[in-house]
Design goal:
The protein is of the alpha+beta class. It contains 5 helices and 4 strands, in the order H-E-H-E-E-E-H-H-H. The protein has one domain.
Length: 137
């Protein structure tokens, strides 16, 4: 079983989405390399997402073949190291390009920005205040 730090970080990001009642599939989309051609056709529907491509038959704990970042259906970064790094890069791209957080992932990105990165951390929504309090207990 692969218990690497990268996989743990990915699980934590997914758990934060679930805790905040947001779908992790809106942030991290997983695909098999055999489905790549069909995936290219649906890329236009991707708002802001980290696309993880796995080998067919791979275990969930196996490292991905490739991790890419899409914004508004356009692949902006390719060959990212892992999902957690991709999430940090996506947040950086949102800031650099002066984009708004995706509405489906509003609380997840607010958590990453204000709690994990401590940027403007004094102004938290009530949902995040509760989570931050539980984390610091």
């Amino acid at each position: 079983m692969n218990t690497s730090v990268e996989k743990r970080r990915e699980c934590i990001l997914k758990a934060v989405c679930l805790y905040l009642n947001e779908s992790p599939d809106d942030l991290i989309k997983e695909s098999l390399d055999a489905d790549l051609d069909a995936e290219q056709a649906t890329n236009e529907q991707l708002d802001m997402v980290i696309l993880v491509i796995q080998h067919e038959g791979a275990e969930p704990t196996d490292d991905p073949v490739e991790v890419n970042i899409f914004i508004e259906g356009v692949e902006v970064l390719q060959g990212v190291k892992d999902v957690a790094y991709g999430c940090a890069l996506l947040l950086g791209l949102i800031y650099c390009l002066n984009l708004e957080f995706p509405s489906k992932l509003k609380y997840t990105f607010e958590f990453i920005q204000k709690v994990l990165m401590d940027m403007d951390g004094q102004k938290l929504s009530p949902k995040l205040q509760v989570l931050k309090g539980k984390l610091y207990e």
